[in-house]
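Section 5.1 Outputs to date
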Amino acid sequence: MSAREDILGRIRSALSDAPAAPPVPREYRTTSELDEEALIHLLVDRLVDYKAQVSVVPAAEVPARVAELLAEARSYVVPAGLDAGWLADVDDGTSTGRAAGAGTERRRVDSASAPLGVAELDGIDAVVTASAVAVAETGTIILDGSPNQGRRAISLVPDHHICVVAATDIAGILPEALRRIDGTRPLTMISGPSATSDIELERVEGVHGPRRLDVIISR
């Protein structure tokens, strides 16, 4: 008997008398009723508290901010469906794309049909993605694997994540955010740069994901 079969067998045995499931309380808040300005302010406050860097810019200034944040990156990766306009101001040298010659390519493109390997991603300095929704109260950004966000691996392996959040995609609280996304998709919830601590409470960054998180809120 496998471990899976053993676990499922125990569950079936425990439920053999078909106990009635108790009702799930639903008295929690479902809306925040904050306006856009208040949502932005709250999200920025939470993200900064988590040691993320945040910029709030007009939509037209997103390309310039992305280029500024990528200025020191030797290489970066983007999902295949990312808005190309966001990269308009980035200097990629003489070539772009995965087929570019060694030593000249800077931008790598990842897709489900042509995924980059983990070792390859580990050698890339930064990643640029969009986002599905953000939760202001918890300072959480949610990616759902859409074409402009890409596979989970590209947002976890490179050391620097640049994430663009549309102001219209900011929800006040989690129940509001969950109503905007498909819960069956591969969700990644990001609350600041990756950080953990050992038994002596020594903070260590970059263990489970990017060490640096730059959020660009586009309004």
